[in-house]
Amino acid sequence: MPFNPQAVLIVAAILFVLGLVGVLTRKNIIFILVSVEIMLNAAGLAFVAAGARWGQPDGQVMFLFILAMAASEVSVGLALVMQTHRQHKTLDVQELRELRDKTEEYSSI
Amino acid sequence: MNVLFYLSSAIAIAATIMVITRYKPIHALLYLVVSFMAVAMIFLSLGAPFVAVLEIILYAGAIIVLMIFVVMMLNLGSETAQQEKEWLLPKVWLGPSILSLVLLGEIIYLLLRSGTGNASFIFIDSKKVALSLYGEYIIAVELTGFLLMAGIVGAAHIGKHKKKHLHRFLQEEEVSTKIEVRSTKPEDEKQTKPVAYKP
Predict the structure, then answer these.
(1) What are the two backbone dihedrals, phi and then psi, of residue B120, each rounded to the nearest 5 degrees?
(2) Domain range holding B69?
(3) CB atoms < 10 A from the CB of B166, how many?
(4) Which residues numbered 41-100 in A keep a CB inside 8 Å of some CB on B?
(5) Which residues contact B51 (CB under 8 A, 6 or more apart)?
(6) Is residue B85 located within the same domain as residue B6?
(7) Where is composition skewed (Basic and acidic residues) in this entry (chain B) (predicted)?
(8) Cα–chain-centroid distance for residue A32?
(9) 16-35 in A: which are within 8 Å (CB) of B?
């Protein structure tokens, strides 16, 4: 069956950039986690497309590893989100700056 | 086959755009389910049915449901949507979006320039994937098991309440030691103050 590997890679690149824009622009931790999931999914799509192009199963095997990594990452990330909400009562990443330097020049940011 | 692929990729891109522009978290997560199902359709059109099924079961079925449960537990409703509406201003998202779009244009240009045109692909069934997974990648499978174990332990340790649940004997002990500490505290201060003056 014919297919165009460039088209699949372009779709994967578009999805990855959308996830990147989500990470860069959002301030809620939940949305940042969702955008990271989108980026991982786009990387897996590129792997599967490459595996289909060369007729090897390695691409799908790599997708399985990406899937396991995404599952463990999101479980730990959601646990951190719940602890953050319990201790700070907010999900805004700009409020979570207890580790910053306590000098005057940074306090205005 | 091509029509199927282009239709599902258009749905995936549209749903992902909706995900990163929604204000309410639950709406974004539901659009994300649509996006994952469209990507699973792309996998089917690429001749990878095993991965397509796993995408639906694990991504749309497990990970998104986990996130929806957390959104429900944290009770992120209309207040969060209002906050997001205040945060998501054009001056916030315009700069990163334009820079990322430039990078996307570059990679699309590179992909189109180095194109080899249409290629024929071979249908890869789950038997080949399983033989490869448990043959040459067996070390990586075991390491993935370690990773999942660490994920479980880490999530259970981070996510638990930090309340102290003591046995009643230990609680009595702790109360008695607290009382002792309180009763001895002024004496300690009295004892330590002259010591501090000595040198």
Answers:
(1) -95, 135
(2) 1-90
(3) 10
(4) 41, 44-45, 48-49, 51-53, 55-61, 63-65, 67-76, 78-83, 85, 91-92
(5) A44, A48, A60, A63, A64, B43, B129
(6) yes
(7) 180-192
(8) 7
(9) 17-22, 24-28, 30-31, 33-35
Residue in B26, B35, B43, B91 to test binding to A, most A beta-carbons within 10 Å:
B43
Q: Is residue B99 part of a domain?
A: no
State which residues form the domain around A73. Answer: 5-88
Task: For A2, list phi and psi in degrees, rounded to 5.
Answer: -80, 145
**Digit-coded pLDDT (tens) for A50-106:** 888 888 889 999 999 999 999 999 999 999 999 888 888 878 887 787 777 766 555
The whole-number pLDDT of residue B189 equals: 47
d(CA B123, CA A3): 12
pLDDT band at B89 (very low <50, low <70, confident <90, very high): confident
**B13 and B82 part of one domain:** yes
